[in-house]
Automatic annotation (TrEMBL):
Keywords: Amino-acid biosynthesis, Cytoplasm, NADP, Oxidoreductase, Proline biosynthesis. It comes from the Bacteria. Residues 25-117 form the Pyrroline-5-carboxylate reductase catalytic N-terminal domain. One of its GO terms (molecular function) is pyrroline-5-carboxylate reductase activity. Residues 180-285 form the Pyrroline-5-carboxylate reductase dimerisation domain. Pathway: Amino-acid biosynthesis; L-proline biosynthesis; L-proline from L-glutamate 5-semialdehyde: step 1/1. Catalyzes the reduction of 1-pyrroline-5-carboxylate (PCA) to L-proline. InterPro entries: 6-PGluconate_DH-like_C_sf, NAD(P)-bd_dom_sf, P5C_Rdtase_cat_N, P5CR_dimer, Pyrroline-COOH_reductase. This is Pyrroline-5-carboxylate reductase.
Length: 290
């Protein structure tokens, strides 16, 4: 873990402190819905407290099936609604168009944006000089197994920070960074990271199928291997992954034969390094597009 990323220690998911006070989720696509699933499954928010704004009818229906209220535009929200927290889960390219309509709630609400690359200075221009946090979650938050990295602007007080952590903690680990540019790094590692792992599973499964294992068994084995290895890596933090790798690798054995390819000229290290750097650069450049 980079030195600047400090885990926030909550031993168990805590209930969202503002239970009974409205929480507004703007955008309920892939990541918004993953967050919503995690909050509700952990009981960090009650369905009757959550309001979703999402233009797609299909996605609104999906959210409503979890018991929350959903509408298609901000203007359809009840006039008296006073959200305590607003989570902006829309595309970076559309946030400048969408967010200013939510500035009207600044009197009661703090804001959390999960948009990749959209810096707090830009968000402050859209919403005002108020408490704004950037959070970079990932899709495993839907199962409470995600990682979220958070940066808070200087207007964010301790109470707001705690409230936001209590909510996000429902999705898994929450880590604060005190330099905003580290959100770009976190985006490239944990935000996009599940896609790298899914690609690895796809590649392993494809090769398993070509070896004659059959499509279903190939995919089962690839999924189970990644899940099992991840569980082992998480089960004992005193064991570095390199040590776990060594335990699989018999001298002159099969694993050694494979690792010789993956480690030659640091092939995998370089490839992954290039990929992560490209994601981080893309995150940093998105701020210029808003
Ligand atoms: N996907 C991921 O794993 C992660 C994504 N993020 C960030 O989350 C954000 C959302 O990404 P993702 O969920 O993948 O994208 P999606 O396109 O799946 O979700 C965005 C949703 O916002 C909706 N939307 C569009 N206009 C409005 C509006 N005016 N009001 C409310 N909702 C609106 C879109 O509807 P429609 O499609 O009809 O336009 C869509 O359903 C991005 O900023 C991304 O950077 C962060 C971490 C991980
Ligand atoms: O691909 C993206 O831009 C978003 C941000 C992190 C994961 N998905």
């Amino acid at each position: 873990m980079p030195a600047d990323i400090h885990p926030v220690c909550f031993s168990a998911p805590e209930r969202f402190e503002t239970m009974g006070q409205p929480l507004l989720l703007v955008g309920c696509g892939n990541m918004g819905f993953s967050l919503l699933q995690g909050w509700l499954a952990a009981g960090a928010a009650a369905p009757e407290d959550v309001y979703v704004v999402e233009p797609s009818e299909m996605l609104r229906d999906r959210a409503c099936q979890l018991g929350v209220a959903a509408c298609s535009t901000v203007d359809e929200l009840a006039p008296g609604l006073q959200p305590r927290l607003i989570v902006l889960a829309v595309k970076p390219q559309s946030i400048a168009e969408i967010a200013p309509a939510y500035a009207r709630f600044a009197g009661t609400a703090a804001y959390v944006s999960i948009a990749a690359g959209v810096i707090t200075t830009s968000l402050e221009k859209m919403l005002g000089d108020i408490a704004i946090l950037r959070a970079m979650p990932n899709t495993p938050t839907s199962l409470g197994k995600g990682s979220t990295v958070v940066f808070a602007n200087s207007r964010t007080d301790g109470g707001t920070r705690e409230r936001v952590v209590a909510l996000l903690r429902a999705g898994g680990s929450v880590h604060f960074v005190d330099r905003e540019e580290l959100i770009d790094a976190a985006t490239a590692i944990s935000g996009s990271g599940p896609a790298y792992v899914f690609l690895f599973i796809e590649c392993l499964a494809r090769r398993a199928a070509t070896l004659g294992l059959g499509e279903k068994l190939a995919l089962d084995l690839a999924r189970e291997t990644v899940a099992g290895a991840a569980a082992l890596a998480m089960s004992d933090s005193s064991q570095h992954p390199a040590h776990l790798r060594e335990k699989v690798t018999s001298p002159n054995g099969t694993t050694a034969a494979a690792l010789e390819i993956l480690l030659a000229d640091d092939a995998l290290d370089h490839l992954l390094g290039h990929a992560v750097d490209a994601a981080r650069r893309r995150s940093a450049s998105l701020s210029g597009e808003v």
